Every structure is written in structure tokens, then in C-alpha cells.
Amino acid sequence: MRHKKLSIIIPAYNESKTITQVLEKILSTPLSDTEEGREYPIAKEILIVDDCSTDNTEEKVKAFIHTHPDTSIQYTKLPRNRGKGYAVRTGIHLATGDVIIIQDADLEYDPADYAILLQPILSGEYQIVYGSRLLNKSNHYSYRSFYWGGRLVSFITSLLFNVKITDEPTCYKMFDATVLKSIPLTSNRFGFCPEVTSKALKRGYAIKELPIKYYPRSKKEGKKIKWRDGIEAIYILFKYRFTKI
Fold first, then answer.
1. Inter-residue contact 228 to 152 (CB < 8 Å)
2. Does the global pTM surpass 0.90?
3. In Å, how far from its chain's centre is CA 104?
4. What distance, in Å, lies between the first and last C-alpha atoms of the chain?
5. Bridge partners of residue 88, in order along the sequence
């Protein structure tokens, strides 16, 4: 048996305050797969794509790699700022794992949830799993506008594609790598989420949602998404619902 590998794509822009803690959490999270009654570890491949940060994100990452020489961490710095979607697409191209997940470089999402999200993919039941913040009733949001904006985008997704999606804008999107690499993506900014969702649903893939933990940060702490990104998300959903792909 060839042991499975999880590729963790981290798009980062000016995340020097949190990137080290995120990497520590990822490395400390045990992952395993079971076959014929035996448990096998799942390897982790961490792909950090720095979207031309202007702070000391690069120094923090390189120092972490230096002190963890036995880990599989690949650092790529883009020559100019292109947006989260472009950074994610770069990571997808570099990924060599069997499964791929997107991980923000802040501390809003907990890598301990990887194990839960992996199970439907490892079992072969699903090829796409989203971590839903809405399904975990203990979560809270830093801004009501983000909460209702996410609900609106999710409602429109469900309506357009005749599915039930509670948290379309979630960062934690996990894919069978073959499936994700087969979907042509073009978005550079936050449009990655609605684009990949639209194109996956249009191809007939079912998306499994599971509850995850969420620790929202404020704009002062570095939250970058804005209201106009929600408008763009809705536009992209309509565009790919009614455009031949």
C-alpha cells in the first residue's frame, strides 16, 4: 500500500504575527488512515505561497523551516502581489499529495479538524468536503456583516445549483487532488471559493459539509476580505451557473 499524503496550501500575505503558530499547529496534528484493521500515518506536505508580503513573513517561514529540517515545507514567494486565488492556484500546481486542503495563514481555523474532514474522502464516499462554520453552533462571528454575507452567498449557491450548502465561503475546502487539479481555475482574488464551488457542482460532484471550529479575527488583526468580495462572489456564482464551462 502507498501511504496517503495531504497537501496543505497556505496562501499568505503579511501574516508574520501568526504564520509560525499555524505551522506548529499543522505539524502537531496527527493524521492517519485505516486499512485492513491497521492504522497508517498520513504524510503532510505544506506549501506556503507568499503573495509578495511586505512584512517579515518570509523571515518567519524560513526560520521555521531551518528549525524543522525533517518536515516537508515548501516556501514560494510570488514576485508581485496577485491575490489569494492566484496564490492558491500556484499551490495546487505544486501539490503532490492525494488530498488537498486550503489553510489560511491566520488562526481562524484549527488544523485539528483535518482528521474529521479527511474521513469521507479516505472512505471513498466523497471527493470534496467543506468545513462548515455554521454547522458548529458554538462558533461566533466578529462581524454580523460577514455572517449574513456568508449566509447570503451560501443561499444563492444552494438556489442556483439545487444543493444544500450552509457555508460556501469557508476556507476549509478539501478535495481529492485529482478532482481539484482537473478543474480549470482563473480567479486571482477571493473569487477562488465561488469559482471552484460553481465548477465542481456543475461537473456533478457532491460536496459533503462537516462542522468545524472557527475563531474569527478582526480587521485590526488583519482580516482582509471586504463587502465587495461578497458581491464578486455572487457575480461569479451566476456567471458559472449560466456559462458553458
1. no
2. yes
3. 7
4. 36
5. none
pLDDT in 10s for each residue of the chain, 245 residues:
468 999 999 999 999 999 999 999 999 999 999 876 788 899 999 999 999 999 999 999 999 999 999 999 999 999 999 999 999 999 999 999 999 999 999 999 999 999 999 999 999 999 999 999 999 999 988 777 778 889 999 999 999 999 999 999 999 999 999 999 999 999 998 899 999 999 999 999 999 999 999 998 665 655 556 667 778 999 999 999 998 76
* Cell matching residue 36: 485492513
Q: Which residues contact 141 (CB under 8 A, 6 or more apart)?
A: 147, 214, 216
Q: Which residues contact 17 (CB under 8 A, 6 or more apart)?
A: 221, 222
Q: Yes or no: say if 99 and 126 are a contact pair by the CB < 8 Å rule.
A: no
